[in-house]
Amino acid sequence: MSKKDKKIEIQVTDAKVTVGQDSYEGYALTIGKKLIGEIAELDGQFAIVKNGNIESFYKKLEKAVENSIETYNLNK
């Protein structure tokens, strides 16, 4: 028997992202109601934020989103 591929919809919405004590414009990645990642826009770069700390920086939003999804899938 072969497995059917499930289609999962990931939503990217505008959000305020908290880094330490500061709040920045950014994006929230969600699957249904579950938050899977946050991305803050800092000085023209996109930073992946976990638990209020910056994990890594990317020049393009697409790369940051892709990395957040990969990390979520690997830790699942």
Please supply descriptive tags for the structure shown above.
5-stranded antiparallel β-sheet; transaminase activity; 5 strands; alpha+beta; aminotransferase; DUF2969; transferase
| Beta fraction | over 45%
Return the string of H and E elements: EEEEEH
Low-confidence stretches: none
Task: Give helix % range.
Answer: 10-25%
What number of domains? 1
Q: Would you give an account of this structure?
A:
With 76 residues, this protein is of the alpha+beta class. The protein has one domain (10-75). Helix content is 20%, strand content 53%. It has one helix at 61-75, and strands at residues 11-19, 22-31, 34-42, 45-50, 53-58. A hairpin with a 2-residue loop joins strand 2 (22-31) and strand 3. It is elongated. It holds the Pfam family DUF2969. This is Branched-chain amino acid aminotransferase. Keywords: Aminotransferase, Transferase. InterPro entries: DUF2969 (IPR021351).
Characterize this entry briefly.
Helices cover about 20% and strands about 55% of the residues.
Topology:
Elements: E1 11-19, E2 22-31, E3 34-42, E4 45-50, E5 53-58, H1 61-75
Antiparallel strand pairs: 1-2, 2-3, 3-4, 4-5
